[in-house]
Amino acid sequence: MNPVTRHVDILEGRDSLRGAFAGSLGLHAAVAGAIAFFTLVPIGKREPWGDPNSLGGGAFSVTPVKSIPIEGAAGPVNRLARDTKSQVPEPVKPETRKSSKREDPDAIALKSKQQPKKRELADRRPVVRTDRREIAENQVTSRVGQAAVSPLFSQTPGSGGVGVGTGAPFGARFGAYALLLSERVAQKWRTDSVDPRIRTLPPAIVTFEILRGGTVRNVRVVQSSGNVLLDNSAQRAILEAAPFPPLPAAYGGDSAVIEFWFQLKR
Q1: Structural domain includes residue 77
Q2: Where are the beta strands (DSSP E) in the chain?
Q3: Fewest CB within a 10 Å sphere: which of 24, 52, 197, 246?
Q4: In terms of residue numbers, what domain contains 125?
């Protein structure tokens, strides 16, 4: 009789995981070391600009003074406040004057100390009052009146703060130039497109390159605020503020990469 052979199952065998575990651990350690090396060791020469006492990545507050920070209505200027949202003015009402009483020629005049003289009555002329608003003949009017429209009411530029980040060559030199860039961008930053119910958002970080003549290029968002409208408003502020003044003569490079932080706080 042939001896009974045992059936061998290949799934019962166990491979050692020591080699694979050691290789994976070594690979992760090498990647972590490379990241730490390139982070701590600067590559290339960076010339610091700006104020040495400034906090990189911070933001200074923007305080507009030309208008009140509330949303203004569109339409012709009308400083009279009305509880309506209509942009159509009301029709000009003709001025009603009280007609003076005419004396009856058959009446007997009574002597009185307060009775005006005939010459004084003849010298008086009616005063014609006109409406100061210039309304065209084809102007559409409304009976409910127009909402208040004033240049004092406008969406403020930049609700929050704008600052130069640590990723730009700012820090120890050319502080006046760095402050000028920040002010120019802050004046152009508008957040009226962002939902007014949103009170605050994480900062949007935008980088761009300034050439020697002051023109900009490569404007891009490197860190999103989580709101597309705020990110777009930050990019638009830089593009509208450009071109900037030329780079300082003492700066040795032909261009400078700038990093701006846009922080929304209402």
Answers
A1: yes
A2: 60-61, 68-69, 153-154, 160-164, 204-211, 216-223, 255-264
A3: 197
A4: 73-91+108-149
